[in-house]
Design brief:
alpha/beta; Rossmann fold; six-stranded parallel sheet; four-stranded parallel sheet; 17 helices; 14 strands; globular
């Protein structure tokens, strides 16, 4: 495998390049989808969607919930009586919450999640959350956020959820030592791996947002330094900065190169000597490079087109280009937050076509004209493109699967190599 291109400060990449801004028809899931991974992450929280039967079907389909399972999410159905104003929606919601908490006494944090239907009837869930939180405090904390898909993409559900948590985080003492907060939901195994690395580097105290349990929310204040683990947390980052925290710009921990740069950002902030840093990460980096080498052989030189879906597209494009040798045809993203993505944009090849937003028909035309070897897109586009002979990768799988860190670098590459390998077998 070729050695990754070293990161140089003078690399301009796509930092100052033109961005194709699109405002047309979109193909995305709504923010309710974020519940699928968030309910696994916060182990004593419950997500109550206030929405329609369509909302319930969406989440159950996405999560693959079996009928006899006890998931930590449900839907309070808005029916015709609510829409017609015959029933008091606030009273109905109170009744559902009381029944839920009686049945599930293990709940310590309850999220009321808004949907398109609840927003259409102007149901004030923030007021309901405040009222119910007073009623059930301190046993249960009730918060609210919007998972509506009217103007958002699906990963913004996590952003809205974490932003709702930030005001409830305790205030750090003025004389508290510097603390690291990693923001963004990751699998427990990935968190454990990063904790070990931070411990070996002497970085700490370290906390994660969201925490595994509701009572483990970290303190936040002027001495809090934040590393974003996901690129779609604009509202969360803003809320943390409003609490005095400092968000440290860094490439995101995807692949060997991205993980190294992400960890080095924290190491530099804590004054970790370069020799110690290399000693801690060297073996991990080498394992990641070996895992990537297998997939680079299959993917190097192939072209990839990324439709806007999850906001993971720019760091994924950097990973595919620099670590797997793929050619970027177009890198689409629903929203381009230049401040958070500046380190990633600097690492993309100069001249890369970056598009923000979506006009799906025009983007499909560009994709068909380019005939890329691999298309990363949402479920709604994947099957039609496969029928046209294109090879696709579902972008939503990149959010559901543990992909951050050294140990997952090979798994991340495998997600892209698998459809290419499948296409080759079918063509043989």
């Amino acid at each position: 495998m070729n050695a990754p291109i070293p990161i140089r400060i003078e690399d301009a990449g796509c930092s100052s390049g033109e961005v194709l801004r699109q405002r047309g028809q979109r193909e995305v899931f709504c923010g309710l989808t974020g519940i699928v991974w968030l309910h696994r992450r916060i182990q004593d929280a419950f997500f109550l969607v206030v929405g329609s039967r369509t909302c319930a079907h969406l989440i159950q389909s996405a999560a693959g919930v079996m009928i006899f399972a006890e998931p930590r999410f449900a839907t309070a159905i808005i029916d015709d009586r609510d829409l017609a104003g015959i029933a008091d929606a606030q009273d109905e919601l109170d009744r559902v919450v009381v029944r839920l908490l009686e049945r599930r006494p293990d709940i310590r944090m309850l999220f009321l999640v808004g949907s398109c239907p609840s927003e259409v009837i102007k149901l004030d869930l923030s007021r309901a959350a405040g009222r119910l939180s007073q009623r059930f405090s301190p046993a249960v904390r009730v918060l609210s956020y919007s998972g509506s898909g009217i103007e958002t993409t699906f990963t913004q559900g996590e952003d809205a959820c974490l932003a709702a948590l930030v005001p409830t985080m305790p205030e750090a003492a003025a004389d508290a030592p510097p603390a690291l907060l990693v923001a963004g939901a990751m699998a427990d195994i990935v968190e454990d791996q990063f904790r070990r690395v931070f411990d070996e580097l002497g970085i700490g105290p370290v906390d994660f947002l969201p925490p595994r349990r509701a009572n483990e929310l970290a303190s936040v204040g002027p001495n809090t330094r934040v590393l974003l683990a996901q690129p779609f947390l604009a509202d969360t980052a803003r809320a943390l900065e409003n609490r005095g925290a400092t968000v440290m710009p860094a490439p995101f921990p995807l692949g060997e190169e991205g993980t190294t740069a992400w960890l080095r950002t924290a190491a530099d902030a804590w004054g970790v000597p370069a020799e110690r840093f290399e000693q801690v990460v060297a073996a991990r980096r080498e394992r990641a490079r070996r895992a990537l080498a297998v997939h680079r052989e299959r993917l190097a030189g192939r072209s990839v087109f990324l439709f806007p879906d999850s906001q993971l597209e720019p760091p994924l494009a950097r990973f595919l280009s620099r670590e797997l040798g793929m050619t970027l045809v177009e890198v689409g993203t629903p929203y381009l937050h230049r401040q958070h993505l500046a380190p990633e944009l600097a690492l993309l090849p100069a001249g890369t076509l970056i598009s923000e937003g979506q006009d799906v028909d025009r983007q499909l035309d560009r994709c068909r004209a380019a005939r890329p070897d691999l298309v990363v897109c949402g479920l709604g586009l994947a099957n039609p493109l496969e029928a046209e002979g294109l090879t696709t990768k579902w972008s939503i799988e990149l959010v559901f699967t543990p992909v951050q860190g050294y140990e997952q670098a090979g798994d991340l590459a495998e997600l892209f190599a698998r459809p290419v390998r499948r296409r080759g077998l079918l063509a043989a």
